[in-house]
Amino acid sequence: MDLRYPIGEMHWPPALAPGERTAALAVLAETPAKLRAAVAGLDDARLDTPYRPGGWTVRQVVHHLPDSHMNSFIRFKLGLTEELPTVGVYNEKAWSELPDASGPIEVSLRLLEALHERWVGLLATLDDAAWQRRIDHPEVGVLRLDQLLALYEWHSRHHVAHITSLRDREGW
Question: How many domains does the chain have?
């Protein structure tokens, strides 16, 4: 198994049907609780263990999720309020090396909970036309909002699996 992709690599869907969007929103809604469960009982030594050789530590993964998902929340809002906006990108590696990415994880767990509550609440109100709106991502290209949802549904499961697969391998 490739430890970088414990659930497999992201595959871009051409579109998401309404039922697939509902299922993806359910994943986003449950991600904060799944992340909290994945790190439950881990001490600092385990939080500071990389999920794979050369990879981020568990702590960095926990801090990365709200960083990334805040960016996604903004991308969705831009896509809903502007015509084909070019969205910003950020240097994930550099963000993971900032001092806050080595601090206590509780604040990031709470941030993810609040963010996902608001984000899922917004996305649950969208009609079919809204899901077809598009953004221009400088690294990926033009995406519809339903494709962006697919990305973050995968991203949520992907990073939680980094932690749970490490725990399984280590017998934690």
Answer: 1
